[in-house]
Amino acid sequence: MHPHVEKILLEENQINERIQQLGQQITQDYQGKDILMVGILKGAMIFLADLVRNIEVPTFFDFMAVSSYGAGTVSSGVVRILKDLDKSIEGKHIIIVEDIVDTGLTLQYMVENIKSRGPASVKVCTLLDKPDRRKVEVPIDYNGFQIPDEFVVGFGLDYNERYRNLPYIAVLKPEIYQS
Ligand code: PRP
Ligand code: MN
Ligand code: MG
C-alpha cells in the first residue's frame, strides 16, 4: 500500500470485476450499434481504458479535457474546456465516461454540451458516484459504485495531480490533505 494511503475503499479486483459487468451490460444494450465513448480527461482515462476492453460492439473513443477543481478538493463550479473533441459527433451514439460524479456540475455541463451537437443518443457511465455531495441532478445510466462523502484518489482520480496511478480507490491520510 502507498505510504500516504489511510485506507483502501475499493480493491483492484473489486473494481475490475465491476468494470467487466458494466462492459457486458453496455454490450447488451448496444447490440447492432457503434458506440462513441467520450472520456473526460484526465480522471476518466484509466476507467475508460479498462471499460472499452470489456465491450464487444464496435467502440470508438474521443476525449474532452475539462477542469473544475484546479488544485484542492473542492469544486469551483466553473467548467473550463481545455481540449475539445476531434470530430463531429452528429448521429452517433455517445457514452460520456467519467471517473466520479460529485457535485454533478462537470457532468451537467458535459451532457448539455454533447447534446447540443446533434448525437443520436447520449448516455452517461461513471465509475464512482458520491450522491451526498450532489448540487445538480444528473442522469447516470451506468454506475460502478456509490461511495460515501470522502475525498478519494487512485484509478485516475487525483489530489493535486498525484495518485492517479494507484490501482485501487483510496482515502489519503489527513496530514496529506493539509499539506
Ligand atoms: C474531477 C472528476 C470529475 C469531476 C467531478 O475532475 O474527475 O470530472 O471532478 O466533480 P463534480 O461532479 O463536482 O463536477 P477534475 O476537475 O478534478 O479534473 P481531472 O479529471 O483532470 O482530475
Ligand atoms: Mn475529471
Ligand atoms: Mg481532479
From TrEMBL:
Subcellular location: Cytoplasm
Name recorded for this polypeptide: Hypoxanthine phosphoribosyltransferase
A GO molecular function held by the record: hypoxanthine phosphoribosyltransferase activity
One record GO biological process: GMP salvage
Organism, scientific name: Desulforamulus reducens (strain ATCC BAA-1160 / DSM 100696 / MI-1) (Desulfotomaculum reducens)
Its biological purpose: Purine salvage pathway enzyme that catalyzes the transfer of the ribosyl-5-phosphate group from 5-phospho-alpha-D-ribose 1-diphosphate (PRPP) to the N9 position of the 6-oxopurines hypoxanthine and guanine to form the corresponding ribonucleotides IMP (inosine 5'-monophosphate) and GMP (guanosine 5'-monophosphate), with the release of PPi.
Keywords of this entry: Cytoplasm, Glycosyltransferase, Magnesium, Metal-binding, Nucleotide-binding, Purine salvage, Transferase
Enzyme class: transferase
InterPro entries in the record: HGPRT, Hxn_phspho_trans, PRTase-like, PRTase_dom
UniProt entry tagged with the keyword Nucleus: no
Enzyme Commission code(s) on record: 2.4.2.8
